[in-house]
Amino acid sequence: MEKNKILVTGGLGYIGSHTTLALQAAGYEVVIVDNLSNSQADMLDRIAAISGIKPALAQFDLCEEAALDQFFAEHANLGGIIHFAAFKAVGESVAQPLNYYKNNLLSLMLLLEKMQKYAVPYLVFSSSCTVYGEPESLPVTEAAPVQKATSPYGNTKQISEEIIQDVLKAQPALQAIALRYFNPVGAHESGQIGELPLGVPNNLMPFITQTAIGLRSELKVFGHDYDTPDGTCIRDYIHVMDLAEAHVIALQRLMEKKNRANYEFFNLGTGQGSTVLEVIASFERTSGQKLNYQLTERRPGDVVKIYADTALANEVLGWKARRNLDEMTRSAWQWEQNYRGQ
Ligand code: NAD
Ligand code: WQD
Q1: Catalytic residue among 153, 226, 293, 339
Q2: Taking the mean position of all CA atoms in its chain, how far away is CA 267?
Q3: C-alpha distances in angstroms, 294 versus 17, 146, 208, 224, 232?
Q4: Could you tell me if 74 and 93 lie in one domain?
Q5: Cα of 143 to ligand 1 centre, how many Å?
Q6: What's the CATH code of the domain at 293?
Q7: Domain presence at residue 248
Q8: Which residues contact 7 (CB under 8 A, 6 or more apart)?
Q9: Ligand 2 centre from 72 Cα, in Å?
């Protein structure tokens, strides 16, 4: 019988919570490990309100080996693992590099160790398009070289991919898929869960919705003299539910032994680049709100343009992003309004 209990680390976070819903919709039982370092326990009730099923939560730090070992001992029949748990703030990682290296790498290493010890063979890992840096040609394919990371956070993703590959070479029974996300945005169609950054958001979409709702006075558009059609940077924004569904497909690929190698990696994007001003225009169109923004100086370290070649994920995984930019901005705004009770 197929083991259908899946461990989702970081399952209370932004992408993990949406993926939990996608897994439940596909018939899986989800067990979450999360230490609430960047999330809140009431996410469990939010998930239950949408799906009717409250996932089990084991609240501990994945870097605590004894707790992790006990968790695996108590969950003997895990079918696979989706590993989201990590710290992800680029600026913070520059200020606190050791926290990032320790949290993101130790948690992964301990997880891989427990996978071997408890014979859980399948891992889906959250990687990032940040590994490509400023790509030499666009759209960026998986064959593009990984560039030297510009932040400790980015470096943890590169090193994590290397650690997984090295471990899999030595342990051919383990199978993994790394998914390189482009820019995840938007929220579940219910409007009941979404992105909830602590403090002032670094990312564009939550900054837009928090400005529109009145929490921030204005959005600063970082740079307007880049070599792009309107002078602002280009990114490949992807709806978080498209991303969530890709995780279910990747996991199934492993569980059904359809993978072609024991380590595979895929870009997850729409293939469509959008400028910052195009995102703002979409937000204004779908929300009916005029956004208060100002064109300001460049943000140091920003990549100018990046968007994905999605052919590999389309053809090999059989997955394609279905939701467009307007659905991303509409759902992000609906979530912001619901969350603030407006
Ligand atoms: P998030 O911060 O919303 O979720 C991460 C969750 O992991 C949080 O609930 C946090 O409490 C938990 N966590 C962190 N360290 C932990 C630990 N040591 N033990 C237990 N729980 C721990 O982040 P997200 O946006 O959902 O990102 C999920 C993953 O995707 C991360 O690995 C991130 O680096 C990666 N990623 C995110 C983006 C993005 O823009 N959001 C882009 C590319 C890759
Ligand atoms: C998008 C665009 C900004 C805020 C970061 C991480 C990366 C990845 C995703 C995980 C850029 C512009 C933003 C604002 C703005 N995470 N912007 N005003 O820079 O692509 O990547 O998140 O792996 O590692 O670096 O995303 O949302 O910060 O910015 O004008 O207040 O919006 O300059 O062009 P980015 P972002």
Answers
A1: 153
A2: 12
A3: 33, 34, 12, 10, 12
A4: yes
A5: 26
A6: 3.90.25.10
A7: yes
A8: 31, 32, 33, 75, 78, 80, 81, 82, 120
A9: 36
Q: Which helix (H) or strand (E) holds 111?
A: helix 107-117
Task: For the chain, list the strands marked E by DSSP.
Answer: 5-9, 29-33, 56-58, 78-83, 122-128, 175-181, 183-185, 219-222, 234-235, 237-239, 263-268, 274-275, 293-296
Residues 24, 139 within the same domain: yes
Q: Could you tell me the residue range of the domain that residue 292 belongs to?
A: 204-235+271-308+323-340
Which residue, among 18, 36, 307, 57, has the nearest Cα to 190 in the 3D structure?
18
Q: Please indicate, yes or no, whether residues 211 and 328 belong to a single structural domain of this protein.
A: yes
- Is 263 labeled as catalytic in the residue annotation? no
Alpha carbon of 84 to ligand 1 centroid (Å) = 5
| Shortest-distance atom of ligand 2 to CA 222 | 30
Going by alpha carbons, the residue nearest to atom 16 of ligand 1 is 85
Report how many domains make up the chain: 2
Tens digit of pLDDT at every position of the chain (342 positions): 457 999 999 999 999 999 999 999 999 999 999 999 999 999 999 999 999 999 999 999 999 999 999 999 999 899 999 999 999 999 999 999 999 999 999 999 999 999 999 999 999 999 999 999 999 999 999 999 999 999 999 999 999 999 999 999 999 999 999 999 999 999 999 999 999 998 999 999 999 999 999 999 999 999 999 999 999 999 999 999 999 999 999 999 999 999 999 999 999 999 999 999 999 999 999 999 999 999 999 999 999 999 999 999 999 999 999 999 999 999 999 999 999 987
Which one of the ligands is nearest to 14 CA? Answer: 1
Six-digit token string for 51: 């799906």
Query: Best of 9, 34, 36, 87 to mutate for ligand 1, by most ligand atoms within 8 A of CB?
Result: 34
> Which domain CATH number covers 106?
3.40.50.720
Tokens of 330: 């509409």
